[in-house]
Design brief:
Blueprint (H helix, E strand, L loop, with lengths): L4 H18 L9 H15 L4 H13 L4 H7 L1 H6 L4 H12 L6 H19 L4 H5 L7 H8 L4 H7 L3 H6 L1 H11 L4 H9 L4 H15 L6 H10 L4 H14 L27
Helix pairs in contact: 1-14, 1-16, 2-16, 4-7, 4-14, 9-12, 12-13, 12-14, 13-14
Protein name: ADP-ribosylglycohydrolase
């Protein structure tokens, strides 16, 4: 599905919003949205992360130990903004490291995720064909799909919390690649692991690939109703405009639908 980059930007960032809404009734380890918004504002103003935001990230990390996957979701706008240039993203991470001790493992995961994001946004080939070249570890995704490994089997195989912590990207890619063109199915599959990071990463990947228009209208409406002032939509449009070098930011998306649509219940039954 060939989406414009602005559509993909909105899809990835609002995809994470959908994941947060699905997970709203559960206890999350971290409020990613607070930092996401601060990073977006920083990038719109100066195209770099601010000292204040770095300190906020440090405060949250000290308050609650976070995994590599959570850190990716925390700085997601930063990764998207510098998805084409690894060196520039490294510079931003160095700024964060002055205030927060980022592990080498986390940095490596961030860079792998940047490559995956870059490939999805470019969409030059079918996702699975080129995503699996990013890291040898991701070859496991191909094996799972070729063997038609079921979701139930993977849930049993990766049942311990530590297994989910270390394989979040693998399982997120499985959920995404299994139903590449269907945002809703990818999200519902990811939710079955009952692990916020897998749900969030899957939503970002599928949102980037299918674009904002690929998110079900009723889910988009749910987000819109919770963002009465359209501040989130406006900031995302301004972020894309800043990245693209557009003189005038994109106009704020108006009403998504002219008719009232009943929003689905966010959340799925546990197996």
């Amino acid at each position: 599905m060939n989406q414009s980059l602005s559509n993909s930007f909105r899809g990835s960032l609002l995809g994470l919003k959908v994941a947060n809404l699905i997970n709203s009734e559960k206890q999350t380890l971290l409020n990613w949205e607070i930092i996401n918004q601060k990073v977006i504002i920083d990038l719109i103003k100066s195209e770099t992360i601010s000292r204040e935001t770095c300190e906020k990230i440090t405060f949250i990390c000290k308050k609650s130990s976070i995994s590599s996957g959570e850190f990716i979701l925390v700085i997601l706008p930063l990764i998207l903004f510098f998805h084409e240039t690894e060196a520039l993203l490294h510079e931003q991470l160095e700024k964060i490291k002055k205030y927060n001790n980022i592990t080498q493992e986390t940095i490596e995961d961030i860079m792998i995720f940047r490559k995956i994001t870059n490939l999805i946004l470019n969409q030059e080939k079918p996702p699975l064909n080129h995503l699996l070249t990013v890291s040898p570890l991701l070859k496991k995704v191909e094996t799972f799909l070729d063997n038609q490994t079921t979701l139930t089997e993977l849930k049993k195989q990766f049942r311990p919390q530590t297994a989910l912590d270390s394989n979040y990207l693998l399982l997120s890619l499985y959920c995404f690649c299994r139903t590449t063109d269907n945002f809703k199915l990818s999200i519902l599959q990811a939710s079955q692991f009952n692990y916020p990071v897998i749900l969030g990463i899957t939503a970002v990947l599928s949102g980037a690939y299918n674009g904002y228009s690929g998110i079900p209208v009723s889910w988009r409406l749910n987000i819109s109703l919770k963002d009465q002032e359209n501040s989130l939509y406006q900031q995302i449009s301004q972020l894309w405009a800043k990245w693209a070098g557009v003189d005038e930011p994109l106009k704020i998306i108006g009403s998504i639908e002219t008719q009232v649509i009943t929003s689905p219940k966010f959340g799925v039954n546990k197996p």
